[in-house]
Write a structure and sequence with these properties.
The structure is a homodimer of 286-residue chains. In chain A, helix 7 (182-205) crosses helix 10. Chain A is built from eleven helices and nine strands. Helices cover 48% and strands 13% of the residues of chain A. With 286 residues, chain A is an alpha/beta fold. Chain A folds into two domains: 7-180, NAD(P)-binding Rossmann-like Domain (Rossmann fold), CATH 3.40.50.720; 185-285, 6-phosphogluconate dehydrogenase C-terminal fold. In chain A, helix 1 links the parallel strand 1 (11-15) and strand 2 (35-39). In chain A, strands 3-2-1-4-5-6 form a six-stranded parallel β-sheet. In chain A, strands 7-8-9 form a three-stranded mixed β-sheet, covered by helices on one side. Chains A and B meet through helix 7, helix 8, helix 9, helix 10 and helix 11 of A and helix 7, helix 8, helix 9, helix 10 and helix 11 of B.
């Protein structure tokens, strides 16, 4: 077991120096760890990261930094996380804490845990913040300021590892850190994150007005469609990877839309007002 | 016809000194009209308006200010606009320009025009900005800053009246002022304003997670539900008053949601990516 945790003695390696990895690096800098290293296949991202002082050193080959890291933060697309662990499991040094930022945990945790050496602890996490842009140049420490962070502990995790990850993400700027089991996490996220993205896409794609819509909108349309500008590859993975939860949430949403539609058809002002009062109550409590 | 338009010689009366009327008064002040008067049944709103210097004088009875006004701005709930004109049509002085802020124009314009004296010109307009709160205390000049404004001219309008309203709303802070015929306005607004409100309400009302949802959300859910805190009376009027347009837009949206749902069911990553790329293209162009 790790003793006397001191972030200033920590070597941290970030796997994938894109928008998310870059934002991690910039936020971690505030905590002054001993080293922030990054691994990426994109030579330019690594060079930029070094020149901007975002990382201490970049590597294309993970072996060297992994052999010397206390913490590894995987910021890869969901489908690449397992492969990364499979390819590199022999390079983690004893007591390494690994964490991730993957938006869905189903099918990930057991597979990864079964591959890991016993003295390596993978604490699965999910930062509830991001940007729709891609690449290091759009990364920023502010992305995480005041945001929510979800930990999804599993039976293999040591309490010290969970606490260290919590300490670090709080230091990075996250305000609420909650623990929830992985199955519940995926259900929650299908509602709070994937369903809103599906709605935003469906809304803007249903524009059949044939006008310059931008001249006729207020804040509501602007806000409801911001996330319709979406990373197609990432989100199609997330949607399909969490399909049972997401379909179920879409269907509950569809029922609520039908209810509103029927009330309009019936000129049922009372039914509409009931829905509006309930939604106002829920939004105020949020 | 009015000649030599000079805002500093204009007496302007606002009918209804709530959030919207108060925001009009505060924005109009920047233009230094001769007088800003207000009519309301709420004695307290009038007194507060006078004490805060938002208006020059408040009236419960519209007769006196109307007899002396160059411009009248009606900031009432949609269902009250016609009644106000019917009850007060004899008090408008010649060349008065009336305008409104009503969110739907169908069934309003012809009825009102048929009641008005020939020398009074009603320029129907729609400020695409607002807040979900009620009352003068939440009003502010900033609400309209940079926002869109829609004019819906009809055959009875004089070009000078349309230009004067455009000049004044631009002076109040609106950035884009577009003209569109009233039928098209109602269709556009069902999509850009009413549909987003229906979606936000349906989304938050479909929360069946049984957790403290606020701890598990990012900006996307926060943004998509802000307008779910909604003025129940006003929006049920707007929905039912624009029912044919709104139902049709809800149905197009429902089809797009179904398409996304089916792609998830079919593990059809390509179909999802196609939708995401289209939505991203549209959002970037907005």
């Amino acid at each position: 077991m790790r003793e006397n945790f001191d972030i200033h003695e920590f070597n941290i390696t970030i796997i994938g120096l894109g928008l998310l990895g870059g934002s991690y690096a910039k936020s971690l800098k505030k905590l002054s760890p001993k080293n922030i290293w990054a691994v990426d296949i994109d030579e330019k991202a690594l060079k930029d990261g070094e020149e901007l002082g975002v990382i201490n050193k970049g590597y294309r080959d993970p072996k060297e930094p992994l052999l010397n890291s206390d913490m590894v933060i995987i910021c890869l697309y969901p489908n690449l996380v397992k492969k990364f662990i499979k390819d590199n499991k022999d390079y983690f040094r004893p007591n390494t804490i690994i964490t991730d930022a993957t938006g869905i945990k189903n099918g990930l945790i057991d597979d990864i845990n079964s591959m890991l050496p016993e003295d390596v602890d993978f604490v699965f996490g999910h930062p509830m913040a991001g940007r729709e842009k891609k690449g290091l140049e759009y990364s920023s420490a502010e992305v995480f300021e005041g945001a929510n962070y979800i930990l999804t502990p599993n039976s293999r995790n040591k309490e010290t590892s969970l606490l260290i990850v919590e300490l670090i993400v709080r230091g990075m700027g996250f305000r609420n850190v909650v623990r929830v089991d992985p199955q519940k996490h995926d259900e929650i996220i299908s509602f709070t994150s994937q369903l809103p993205h599906a709605i935003a896409v469906a809304l803007i794609n249903s524009d059949n007005l044939n006008v310059n819509t931008g001249k006729f909108i207020g804040d509501s349309y602007r806000e409801l469609t911001r996330i319709a500008n979406i990373n197609a590859e990432l989100w199609s993975e997330l949607f399909i990877g969490n399909k049972d939860n997401l379909i179920s949430k879409i269907e509950v949403f569809e029922e609520k839309m039908k209810l509103i539609k029927q009330a309009i058809i019936d000129d049922d002002k009372e039914a509409l007002e009931r829905e509006f009062k309930e939604s106002s109550r829920r939004r105020t409590q949020l």
